[in-house]
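chain below, 138 aa
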Amino acid sequence: MAETINYIVKDKSFEKFAMMMLLGTTGDAMDIHSNFFFTFWGLNLLTKKFKPKVAGMPTPMKGMGAKIFRKRMAKFGIEDPMGMIKDAVENGNMKLFPCQMTMDLMKIKAEDIIDIAEEPVGAATFLEMCADGKIVSL
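prediction:
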């Protein structure tokens, strides 16, 4: 199995958040390193105040859909998805990289990003980091 898997997160939906959380924390449990690069709308997942919503539902129900998914995930033992991500980051197996260019384009400041994220990097830097691993787009 690969020692490092690199993911590009380009969407802000609850589904993408859940995929990122499951892949990163499962990789952590298997001692696989995961690098996540958050670009364009996916960068919102790293902002402190953002709450992801379910993409496939009508607008007024998107927030309710995320609550339903959280309840279903809790039945599988996933009660604190962000806590699981923090654990994987603290273990050193999961790294979250904000895209510097996207931050500049969207006027997102470093203080708006969650504390467990790495320093922002550009696309070229992220691709150089990916040279020895696999790349997956979420």
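Residues 4-137 form a domain with the Hypothetical Protein Ychn; Chain: A, fold (CATH 3.40.1260.10). The longest helix spans residues 14-29.
thats it, cya
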